Amino acid sequence: MARSSRLPPLNALRAFEAAARLESFARAADELAVTPGAISQQIRSLEEHVGTPLFVREGRGLSLTEAGRAAANVASDAFETLERAVSLMRQPAQRRALTVSVAPSFAGKWLAPRLHRFQETQPGVEVWIAATSERVDLSAGAADLGIRYGPGGDMTLNEETLLPEEVLPVCSPDLLRDGPRLATPRDLDGHTLLHDASPESEVDGADWPSWLKARNIRGVDTAGGVRFNQSALVIDAAVAGRGVALAKRALAQNDLASGRLVALFADGTSPVRSAYHIVTARNRPLSPDAEAFIAWLRGEARVHEHSVDEL
Asked: Among the four 2, 58, 78, 284, which has the fewest Cβ within 10 Å?
């Protein structure tokens, strides 16, 4: 809706609001640091502009006309709104901060590429990703919530499964095309194996010896190769063509979908015992921002699992 270009001067409206509220030209003049004559002149100018009297002057007394009474409260509300607007200009509202504790590999490979979608729906929330392998003390308020990888069952926290996990052999398309043959798992013996040596991999059985044993494959040397202490580094090395990785699906999904990695062998996928869990403190209520973030995580997990099904 277009604003009228026939608004009266702001000074005249300010003089009217003060005089109506204080029921006195003299007191309005004191408040606005002008003379009573200046207030009287502004009111007269405003009455000429709107075409009707706003005050009745009775000797030394002053009262509002019907039109003046109708406009007085609206004018007061309008100036309060303007004062709030100026206050916001001088000191912009603080963005709300939400701290999420998460392992570096999951933060870099899964969470960070999706985070812009949360920020688009919640622009007033500033998300702090605390990427650390340490288990921070959520009960002490070190973070609002965490995403942890493991078998679950921590009774000291509220825990909700976000994503299951599985592992599969992957390599770069260049290595598959130009490198030694990779038609069957036995062909792995002719390649550099990239090992995920993060602490949870051995617990999960998500390592090359376990993967080969489950398929009754012998003769592949698993002692050599390159070892990494973070799952994301294993995937990055595979993308760079440095060898064949046994990768966590959730972390490799974007690289598989984009074609930077290809999955090997029809029966290559193996489930693992661990999953990604949303964890929160039992002794600290969730803020509305934390609840919104968790709801967003659930939705992203559903999209992720649907994309896995399509591959």
From this structure: 2
Q: What does the alpha-carbon distance between residue 54 and residue 43 come to, in Å, rounded to a whole number?
A: 8
Query: Pairing mode, if any, of strands 125-131 and 157-171?
Result: unpaired
* pLDDT tens per residue, range 6-34: 778 889 999 999 999 998 888 999 999 99
* Threshold 0.70, pTM exceeds: no
β-strands 244-248, 270-281 pairing: unpaired
Which two structure tokens, joined as six digits, stand for 11?
A: 């000074």
Amino acid (1-letter code) at residue 169? P
Nearest to 301 by CA among 166, 99, 161: 161
Nearest alpha carbon to residue 235 among 213, 209, 257, 204? 257
Question: How many residues can be counted in the chain?
Answer: 311
Tokens 């038609």 identify what position? Answer: 183
| Alpha helix segments (H runs only) across the chain | 10-22, 25-32, 36-50, 66-90, 104-106, 115-121, 173-178, 199-204, 208-214, 231-239, 249-258, 288-310
Report the amino acid identity of residue 262.
V
Determine contact, residues 280/157, Cβ cutoff 8 Å. Answer: yes
